């Protein structure tokens, strides 16, 4: 069972599943093309002789190492970063070998805002800040595609969650109804 389906609750559904904006992988892709071109050009410049094969092998090995560090790792980091919005919570997971994750219950969210620079508006990206009850500062997610739509979606999900909780016989959870001081995190977590 693929992520995020394996971590969902019984009556929980995925509403939206995002990765960071595609522009975060533009630099590694361009670097890959430059690296392939430079390696090919460099291999063509190696003078003929007994050591030609050795120098070309060294050149290819260096290109592979640079490709691994500056192309493969950023692409894997992009692919393994998940922003998942469900009917009950927001899930964040990142990491290639070591994993880092955070779940924010919709009932704990008190404010959602977004910020876009002029360039972010052009490429439809931005930063989303989420204030939660009991936290010392906002949780900030950068390079979110359609950040304005994500902000509106989160506000809608928070309202629907409160209505669902009220319909089940409970009262709608207010911003501080479920505050637990042991859950307090460091102010402003950036992802």
Description:
- Strands 1-2-3-4 form a four-stranded antiparallel β-sheet. Strands 5-6-7-8 form a four-stranded mixed β-sheet, with helices on one face.
- The chain has four helices and eight strands.
- Helices cover 39% and strands 21% of the residues.
- The longest helix is centred in the middle third of the chain and has 28 residues, at 52-79.
- β6 (127-132) and β7 (139-141) form a beta hairpin.
- Mean pLDDT is 87; it is low at 173-186.
- The protein has 191 residues and is α+β, with helices and mostly antiparallel strands.
- α1 runs antiparallel to α2.
- The chain is elongated, with a radius of gyration of 23 Å.
- The chain has helices at residues 26-45, 52-79, 118-123, 147-167; strands spanning 14-18, 82-86, 89-94, 100-105, 109-115, 127-132, 139-141, 189-190.
Summarize, please.
With 191 residues, the chain is an alpha+beta fold. It has four helices and eight strands. It has helices at residues 26-45, 52-79, 118-123, 147-167; strands at 14-18, 82-86, 89-94, 100-105, 109-115, 127-132, 139-141, 189-190.
- Report the mean per-residue pLDDT as an integer: 87
* Class inferred from helices and paired strands: alpha+beta
Q: What is the number of helical segments per DSSP (H or I, 4+ residues)?
A: 4
The gyration radius over C-alpha positions equals: 23 Å
Quantity of strands, as a count:
8
Percent in helix: 25-40%
Q: Which series of helices and strands comes N to C?
A: EHHEEEEHEEHE
Low-confidence stretches: 173-186
Tell me the overall shape.
elongated
What percent of residues are in strands? 15-25%
Largest sheet: 4 strands, antiparallel
Going across the major beta sheet, what is the strand order? Answer: 1-2-3-4
Spatial gap, N to C terminus: 26 Å
């Amino acid at each position: 069972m693929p992520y995020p389906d394996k971590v969902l609750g019984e009556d929980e559904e995925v509403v939206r599943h995002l990765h960071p904006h595609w522009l975060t992988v533009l630099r590694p892709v361009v670097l890959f093309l430059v690296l392939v071109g430079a390696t090919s050009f460099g291999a063509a410049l190696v003078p003929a002789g007994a050591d030609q094969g050795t120098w070309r092998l060294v050149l290819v090995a260096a290109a592979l190492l640079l490709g691994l560090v500056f192309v493969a790792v950023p692409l894997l980091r992009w692919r393994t970063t998940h922003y998942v919005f469900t009917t009950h919570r927001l899930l964040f997971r990142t990491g290639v070998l070591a994993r880092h994750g955070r779940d924010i219950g919709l009932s704990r969210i008190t404010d959602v805002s977004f910020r876009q620079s002029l360039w972010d508006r052009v490429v439809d990206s931005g930063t989303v800040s989420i204030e939660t009850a009991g936290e010392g500062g906002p949780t900030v997610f950068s390079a979110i595609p359609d950040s304005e739509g994500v902000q509106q979606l989160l506000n809608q999900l928070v309202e629907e969650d409160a209505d669902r909780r009220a319909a089940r016989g409970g009262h709608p959870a207010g911003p501080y109804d479920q505050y637990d001081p042991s859950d307090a995190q460091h102010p402003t977590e950036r992802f």
